[in-house]
Design goal:
With about 450 residues, this protein is mainly alpha-helical. Helix content is about 80%, strand content about 0%. It contains 18 helices and two strands. A two-stranded antiparallel ribbon has the order 1-2. The mean pLDDT is about 85.
Amino acid sequence: MNKKIASNKLLWIFAVGQLGWSMLSGIVTNLLVFFYLPGKEALSDGQQIFISQGKFIGLTVIGMISAVGRLFDAVTDPLIAGRSDRLRHRLGRRIPFMRYAAIPFGAVTVLMFISPVNGESKLNSAALFICAMLFYLCMTCYCTPYNALIPELGRTQESRINLSTFISITYFFGTAMAYVIPVAAGMLRGSVGYAGSYRISIAVLAVIAVICMLIPAFLIDENQYADTTPSKSSAFSSLSATFRNKQFRTFVASDILYWIALTLFQTGLLYYVTELMGLKESMSTLLFMIMSVVSLCFYVPVNLISKKTGKKKPVAFAFIFFSLTFFVTSFAGKTAVPALAYGIIIAVLAALPMAILGILPQAVVADISEADKLETGENRQGMFYAARTFAFKLGQSVAMLIFTSVATIGKSSGLGYRLTAVIAAVLCLMGGLVFLRYNETQVISRISEAQEDGSDA
């Protein structure tokens, strides 16, 4: 059955959902470790310690909770994807999940920052562990079906790149809003204390995020634009078939390395700003906004260039350039350049690769899943995106273990923070080298052949 081609207006409505979930993801990625493993600057400003700061077999409590949460998230991804692919529902295969997951997703994000005991306690660690598992389950239930709609709404090469551009823009704004929290918290700190200021700021942003996530869930009629025919494969067999795709395996290998590197950088950003550069927490918001604005300036050029040159060359270039940015970050506070100026340099350097890697990887997965559907006749876009998120969340788990362990090395001198940036640089470079093995020509040729034959690509 032929489905309608989604208009740009509808694509923007869809992208608002990513604005919502990226706020919640940004809150946890950027603030959770900083909140529960405070540096000396945060402690001097009045932050309390809620969970043990010690190590077990070289790992911190917050590091283990974060890593286990990511692993749990990775395991549930293919299970939810398989369930979504096989779902028979009057609203479609994806929308029902998005509607039911949005509110719990926002609520549990807030609960992750609320401790039952006002001080260090094992009960706080247990509560945080439970909330972390629920957070990642809710995230999977919303994001995996949401991502599966990307190749369905973007049914042509041009619309796939446009949609990837739109959701990248909203992802940037969502993540940027998460970086505003330290500023908002600073304004509230005098009246409600350090922890209270963060909790109130996070709660307000979570409400906004939930509203954004519900917009596409209620305004998009999946039956008009997507193939809602349920897949017949089980979750395990579908996942296995997905990883048999050679081009997808190459992409995933590079993606894991990229997400380890990026998560190290994102988790460390507040530490780089406060501990290495000696700036206030609120300056991280300014630097992130500079990076976002400059990055947005590259969106149109990246969109146009990728339509002419393909996606492979820009993505490989972005990996290498990002690696340089991470390496430069490791020297923060060790040069004659003023701290704020150095921070701005890092923000500007990161802008271009952030634009490229924010837009094109989603389109690459859409290409691969579309080509695979044409080859196998099996309609399992959800599993491709779940397999990707399974892989990169595995990478994020590794990153959390690395960061929380390495960051404590020479904590008074900041050596551990510098090492995390160096590790990120090396891994990102490796990811770029792996991605060079991706055969984009083969994938696009298969889709083009089907279009020429009159197939519904």
